[in-house]
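Input chain follows. Return structure tokens only.
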Amino acid sequence: MPRTQRGGTPSRAARRTTARAARRRTRTTPRLPLRHILPCVILFALMAMLMVRGYVHTEILADHRVRPLVANDRVPKKILDGGPVIDTRSRAKISLEVPDRELVLTFDDGPDPTWTPKVLDVLRRHDAHAVFFITGTMASRHPDLVQRMVDEGHEIGLHTFNHPDLSLQSKARIDWELSQNQLALAGAAGIRTSLFRPPYSSSSARLDNRSWPVTQYIGSRGYITVVSDTDSRDWSMPGVDEIIRRSMPEDGKGAIVLMHDSGGDRSQTVAALDRYITGLQDKGYAFDTLTGALDAPSAHTPVTGVGLWKGKAWVALVQVSERTTGILVVALAVIGVLVIARFALMLILSVAHARRVRRRAFRWGPNGPVTEPASVLVPAYNEAKCIEKTVRSLVAGDHPIEVLVIDDGSSDGTAGIVEELSRELAADPAVRHDVRVVRQENAGKPAALNRGIANARHDLIVMMDGDTVFEPSTVRELVQPFADPRVGAVAGNAKVGNRDTLIGAWQHIEYVMGFNLDRRMYDILRCMPTIPGAVGAFRREALDRVGGMSEDTLAEDTDITMAMHRDGWHVVYAEKARAWTEAPESVQQLWSQRYRWSYGTMQAIWKHRGALFDRGASGRFGRVGLPLVSLFMVVAPLLAPLFDVFLVYGLVFGPTEKTIAAWLAILAVQAVCAAYAFHLDKERMTHLLSLPLQQLLYRQLMYVVLLQSWITALTGGRLRWQKLRRTGAVGLPGAEPQPREPKAGSPVA
């Protein structure tokens, strides 16, 4: 132990030892893997982009909105009778008029990507200038048009950020509207402006006791308020001639003319503008900016330093959000097509499958019914809580079997429980099935299954999980399709046994609708993607030809199924071969399981990608099965939450009613499919009451899991097998024997 100096001060050696220990602790502190962080970052970024888009796409009401009449006795008479330029920056509040023969064209609510360029083209053609009162939302989205206005000599004024009635807003909101509008202008053109036009304004004579205080406050913030004295009312689209008539000045006087370059169809405005400028220029009128007409200093001042960079950053963020949401909209359309196509295929083909296999005269093949015995393989790793139920359910079956429990290095006495149970069953004359235990060092599920295949005595091999229980008829129903010599593997009907909790009910819906209804569809299409590990059967010859269970992926069930297809075997679905399995009971366990499933499925798809270019059965699966599996099991689930993302977006930014109606329509389609799936499986419909909540919560979890799987795959990460904690609570309806605890002295691997 390092010495300590007098007075309790650590010696140099002690400090070095402490520093080394600190470094060791720092090195051994677990770090959150990048693949765990990135999904949250991506989700946050996408939501941020949508929020920015909603922020700059907030609905703007038209300038011609009808406002209630308010008294104007507090407005100075000289302002009411004065000109359209109101300067309240000092105590001496003044108003100005435009000199004779000077016209100031003003355009509100832009810039608009369709109409503003056409207005600018007309002005440039006639060498005329104008003032554009821009909104921050439009300037943020179309900065190039603002820059063009400045480059071509026009003047810019503020029209607030998203066009509220300022007479109804607080001073803090007014400041925000001004600052955000200036931020957008700085980002678009690198300038500030001192001109301002309040939304819903007209002439100075229309100022009242509610709008006048706003005008005064605007002046205190350094702005000149510009209204109009000649209103074209082009928003009403009265026709080109009428717009020109309304915009004409009186007897050679000057005027500020109000027009719009945004907010709707402005084709009449553009057409009228061309004739209007031509006619008045011929009469000696000049079209200038406001400061040019008043012979005043420019309203523009350059923005530099932090202010400029803040504006540039804001505009860049808006541009990124526009492009991102544009991509999301396309993705939403894609997922809409995929979802509708999948639901249509599921309904049509599942109906066809049910009618085919439920006919009285239906036979799986010419060699049925199948009565030859089967070997049931039960890979088990620390399944002490549920292994007895599993084995007892098997020996209660009505088909001749042998049961092989492959103990994969369990440390909880699983093998001992099975061996004791085997001796008990061997002494019972009513039990006709053999139960054996095969031990091995822990090597993983694929290795355990291959060990079981090597020790199996029969040519029909059934595989199941150690937490699953079979009905008495399950094995018999599972092997019947082998009457067809073309069938190499059979998928059973896996059901959630612990469905009494909310998370269990959600998985129950997923199993019945998302798995078993899918399997009917894939059966008809002859491209079944996965034989569930909980209940599946194989022909030994088929297993031998594809090399048995592979350890190349974490989804050995999907891997072996795809290998069967590529080897030319048929893989079918036996709906009556029911198995009850224990689903994860916590979000963490569910996450671990689905993460492995998703990543393993991607691995299997990638492993068998060569089938796309093969011939024969392998090529058929590659060009039919792989695209369908990729679209419906990888791409569609990844994009499906966009429905919910846009639901939130629509609720916040509108249109609310249409958004809710669209989401309810999608939910109704899903409910119809789910109800039909429950009808086919003869399940109670009461579990579907949690379907809306499942769509809002459960699907998001699956989305993040799939996104994390994508990131793991793209970053080259590795994922290990993760053991789920079992409760042993799943059993068949009726008596449920208690799990047997290992006795003292029982062999424990």
